[in-house]
Each structure stands twice: as structure tokens, then as C-alpha cells.
Design a protein that fits this description.
single chain; 104 residues; alpha+beta; 3-stranded antiparallel β-sheet; 2 helices; 53% helix; 17% strand
Length: 104
């Protein structure tokens, strides 16, 4: 029983460490060949958005909006992949995961 408790404690520590790594990590996504770049945390929170002035056309805001959405979606997908890499092995050991993180 003591070994099971020790193993559970170790898994909890690894989980907390992985969650902190995700919170500290930043990933980017791009659209339009790099004209729009979004940066999100490993947990999927939008941190920054960079728009190249070349893509700003007052007569075509729809294209810019589409590029922003695509860049944020790309960054969010990259954050999800990172979360799966960091949390996947730990979530499997916790009886199904469901940790409230993207992709889990």
C-alpha cells in the first residue's frame, strides 16, 4: 500500500511539473506565409499577435480577419500537440486523464 501511495505522489508531482511547463511554454502559429503570427501559451492562452503591415488593406478586412483566425488556430493546434506530448503519458496513468487541458 505504501508503494502505491508513493507512486501516486510521484505521479502528482510529475503532473504538476508538466502543467507548470505548459503554462510557461509559448508556441507560435502563422498564416499567409508568415504575414500573421500568433503566440499562445502551452495551455492555449493567446499571448501575442503580430500582423505585417503589408497585409493591412482597409478595403479588404475580411482577408486580414481570416489570416488572424488561421494563425490563432495554428498556434492553438501547436499548443494542443505540446500538451499531448507533455501530459499524454501522465494522463494515461490517471485513469483516463480529463485534466481540463487542450487535447486531454
Amino acid at each position: 500500500m505504501q508503494a502505491i501511495l508513493a507512486q501516486a505522489q510521484k505521479m502528482q508531482e510529475q503532473l504538476l511539473s508538466a502543467q507548470q511547463e505548459l503554462a510557461d511554454a509559448e508556441v507560435t502559429g502563422t498564416a499567409g506565409g508568415g504575414l500573421v503570427t500568433a503566440t499562445v501559451s502551452g495551455a492555449g492562452e493567446l499571448k501575442a499577435l503580430v500582423i505585417d503591415p503589408k497585409v493591412v488593406d482597409p478595403d479588404d478586412t475580411e482577408t486580414l480577419a481570416d489570416l488572424v483566425v488561421a494563425a490563432v488556430r495554428d498556434a492553438s493546434n501547436n499548443a494542443q500537440k505540446l500538451a499531448e506530448e507533455k501530459m499524454g503519458p501522465l494522463a494515461g496513468g490517471l485513469g483516463g486523464g480529463g485534466l481540463g487541458l487542450p487535447g486531454l
